UniProtKB/TrEMBL annotation:
InterPro entries: ABC_trans_aux (IPR005586). Residues 1-20 form the signal peptide. This is Membrane integrity-associated transporter subunit PqiC. Residues 34-169 form the ABC-type transport auxiliary lipoprotein component domain.
Length: 183
């Protein structure tokens, strides 16, 4: 009687082992090296919006001309909107001025294509805290960085895009009138 029980227990463990899924990898838009620090103008983030198709914890990549794939084992550390907020807070700084500013970020597109590029298309609005909309500066940044085929390389490309976006916002906040030129 003990032998059939041992075989049953062994078979159960083998079945459970076969059902094991791949481990989940977590990624962040905050680079390993901290941002350039916060000096000068203080830039508060009013809000961030992201297209609902990509605003999730799982990384979403484009496939072909019209497809999207939700990667079940490759996740952001939080939803994409929260990852963007954390990365921008880390990166935003301005070299001059003591003015308190706020920025609103509206992501129009967040495309990730392994082996090709990471792209972020953002409309953003910068204004002095408490100022009327007449003091508003509205800009658009379309940033694209080449990417290798791995998800790690794709995340690094998107980290670079966020870093460049923060640099453009900081440049506008430093007192230069108008939107930064497209880079």
């Amino acid at each position: 009687m003990a032998l059939p029980l041992k075989i049953t227990v062994l078979a159960a463990f083998m079945l459970l082992g076969a059902c094991r899924s791949d481990p989940i990898s977590f990624h962040t838009l905050v680079p390993a090296q901290p941002g350039s620090g916060r000096s000068g103008s203080e830039i508060a983030i009013e809000g961030i919006t992201v297209p609902p198709q990509v605003d999730r914890a799982q990384i979403v990549i484009r496939q072909g001309n019209s497809g999207l794939a939700i990667l079940e084992t490759e996740w952001w550390g939080a939803t994409l909107a929260d990852e963007l907020r954390t990365a921008l807070v880390d990166q935003l700084s301005s070299a001059s001025g003591q003015q308190k500013l706020s920025v609103r970020v509206d992501v129009q597109r967040f495309d990730s294509i392994p082996g090709q590029y990471g792209l972020i298309d953002v409309k953003w609005r910068l204004r002095p805290l408490g100022a009327a909309d007449s003091a508003l500066l509205t800009c658009r940044s379309v940033l694209q960085t080449p990417s290798g085929p791995s998800i790690d390389e794709l995340v690094a490309a998107q980290q670079n895009n966020v870093k460049r976006l923060a640099a453009q916002i900081s440049q506008a906040a430093s007192g230069s009138r108008g939107c930064p030129p497209a880079s």
